[in-house]
Amino acid sequence: MAIIAAPEYARRSSRKGPLATEEPPMRAQSSLEPIPHPDAQTGLAQWRELTRQANAAFDRRQFAHAQRLYRQALQTALALIAGPALTACPDDCLAALVVAHHNVSETHRQRRDPVGTLEHLCLPHEALIRIAADPHAPDAARRRAVHHLSRTRLALLDWQTRHGACARTQTLLRDGLSVLSSLSATRVTDPLCPLCRFRTIEHEL
């Protein structure tokens, strides 16, 4: 077995994970439409529930259904980082974004779509670079973006090891390393946030 993302970073545990039991399940799936600029508590609760449902579908090998749900979770994460939740809860919001993208990536891999697989490994890395390098972004968000960049970098390096380098991944890795180096003095080293352990992505070589 191999792991696309760092194993301690994206642990999928819809039944046993620390977040899966923190809040009661939300209502039926039809009620989980993306909320424009949700507050952190509401948006993260929605993200957890959508991810829990998607994990269950993934475990049943219903990859098309899982992908739709993971995409809904991704839309929620995008809404979180576009609103005040990023300032209020930057670590969890950025972790939700990365995990959501990587989950969508894995469903593309299961459906034998390498283009989609790579796309959703690149997109979170690009987003984190933008936030980390943005002088107008909240300082806490920039620091946490640097922290999460190390994980999206590992995912891209793993892709290159398996499939070879391409111009896009090389550029992203170079740009990410530049940001990591320039902001290394502000990098935090506290324990991984609970959302970072929400999903493990494993597959056979």
Describe the overall structure.
The protein is an all-alpha fold and 205 residues long. The chain has one domain (2-203): Serine Threonine Protein Phosphatase 5, Tetratricopeptide repeat. It has 7 helices and 2 strands. It has helices at residues 40-59, 63-81, 85-88, 90-110, 114-133, 139-163, 167-182; strands at 2-3, 202-203. It has a two-stranded antiparallel sheet. Helix 1 (40-59) runs antiparallel to helix 2 (63-81), helix 1 packs parallel to helix 4 (90-110) and helix 5 runs antiparallel to helix 6.
- CATH topology value: Serine Threonine Protein Phosphatase 5, Tetratricopeptide repeat
Helix percentage: 55-70%
Backbone CA Rg: 16 Å
Please describe the biggest sheet, giving its number of strands, its sense, and whether it closes into a barrel.
2 strands, antiparallel
